[in-house]
Amino acid sequence: VFSPVEMAPRDPILGLNEAYNADTRASKVNLGVGVYYDENGKVPLLRAVEAAEQARVAEHAPRAYLPIEGLAAYDQAVQKLLFGQDSPLLTANRLITAQSLGGTGALKLGADFLYRQTGKRLVAISNPSWENHRALFEAAGYEVVEYPYYHPATNGLDLDGMLKSIEALPEGSVVLLHACCHNPTGVDLSLTDWAKVIDVVQRRNHVPFLDIAYQGFGENLQDDAMAVRLFAESGLAFLVASSFSKSFSLYGERVGALTLVTANSEETAPVLSQLKRVIRTNYSNPPTHGAQVVAKVLTNPELYSLWEQELAEMRVRIKAMRQALVEKLQAAGVTQDMSFIQRQRGMFSYSGLTKIQVERLASEFGIYAVGSGRICVAALNQSNIEHVANAVATVLQE
Ligand code: LMR
């Protein structure tokens, strides 16, 4: 039965962990996967998370099944974080949130739901986008096309190209948008840019699907949610995939959410009922631990402010690493202007390194980056940055 099965290619991001783990060099650095490491090169356990976990252990809570759509306190807390405490949507009966297996799980639920219930078959993603976006939507049966996004000459946004391309899509297409800290480029839209995107999406009757996996890593929790809130104000129906993997450093707990914003309250009950079927026929209902922890932090004012502070510490350290990288690249003899690294937001820098240069970084220096040239700035620290800057300077110069 298994004889026709051929080897699949290694995952372009998670596959790098395997190569990194197999590397025996002490100086190896993993700049591949989007994970925040602290100054000591460790994935942090946030103090707010630790406190919430201790409280939970002390409760000796039984492990019953959660509802199909997840823990109610968690789902409500997700909505407040995305739309703001005062959003009229919170009481308009137009929001459906389902706990999901990370942001990826949220995307898959949304993709399956739209495919089955609304007949959507075409999705447009940014060029470039997170590698798994294309793979995930293709696996869900979609044709995946791209809209221009990154302008290599300016290291910035190709807004014109993006708007024209979204305009030209068949009416009613699904348009996947990165709400903040674009993965992989770190290039985001301004508020006026977002207003233009909303205008074209609305005129073309497209279905916006917002992916927000890095809320809090750009400016702060509020500003990073501005795109979500502008869409909310527009009155459009849309979807949001969100994740606490990065912002709570809870990668392995798979804590995410899919939120659907319906056009009116009459749509809400049928949509929820069908979304529950998508979940039930896939993994039945979600796991408890991560959602309990996140809900505890988000609903307790002291833990919330501790978390906000810890999130700010991560953000500030990443920004410091961006600046240090630009300086050290210059000190290592790189003559190109690399200051764009400081303007990019979130965990990543789209470095401009070619696939061959990325391969050299791995083979000669034990430094692992994504083939697209994406490097995870959140994995740099005072001990490895010199090694990385010198290696990048070497591969850029030859
Ligand atoms: C990334 O882009 O590296 C992260 O979102 C992790 C992943 O699942 O790929």
Automatic annotation (TrEMBL):
<comment type="similarity">
    <text>Belongs to the class-I pyridoxal-phosphate-dependent aminotransferase family.</text>
</comment>
<dbReference type="InterPro" id="IPR004838">
    <property type="entry name" value="NHTrfase_class1_PyrdxlP-BS"/>
</dbReference>
<dbReference type="GO" id="GO:0004838">
    <property type="term" value="F:L-tyrosine-2-oxoglutarate transaminase activity"/>
</dbReference>
<dbReference type="InterPro" id="IPR000796">
    <property type="entry name" value="Asp_trans"/>
</dbReference>
<protein>
    <recommendedName>
        <fullName>Aminotransferase</fullName>
        <ecNumber>2.6.1.-</ecNumber>
    </recommendedName>
</protein>
<dbReference type="InterPro" id="IPR015424">
    <property type="entry name" value="PyrdxlP-dep_Trfase"/>
</dbReference>
<dbReference type="GO" id="GO:0033585">
    <property type="term" value="P:L-phenylalanine biosynthetic process from chorismate via phenylpyruvate"/>
</dbReference>
<dbReference type="Pfam" id="PF00155">
    <property type="entry name" value="Aminotran_1_2"/>
</dbReference>
<dbReference type="InterPro" id="IPR015421">
    <property type="entry name" value="PyrdxlP-dep_Trfase_major"/>
</dbReference>
<dbReference type="GO" id="GO:0042802">
    <property type="term" value="F:identical protein binding"/>
</dbReference>
<feature type="domain" description="Aminotransferase class I/classII large">
    <location>
        <begin position="27"/>
        <end position="391"/>
    </location>
</feature>
<dbReference type="InterPro" id="IPR004839">
    <property type="entry name" value="Aminotransferase_I/II_large"/>
</dbReference>
<keyword id="KW-0032">Aminotransferase</keyword>
<dbReference type="GO" id="GO:0005829">
    <property type="term" value="C:cytosol"/>
</dbReference>
<dbReference type="GO" id="GO:0030170">
    <property type="term" value="F:pyridoxal phosphate binding"/>
</dbReference>
<keyword id="KW-0663">Pyridoxal phosphate</keyword>
<comment type="subunit">
    <text>Homodimer.</text>
</comment>
<dbReference type="InterPro" id="IPR015422">
    <property type="entry name" value="PyrdxlP-dep_Trfase_small"/>
</dbReference>
<keyword id="KW-0808">Transferase</keyword>
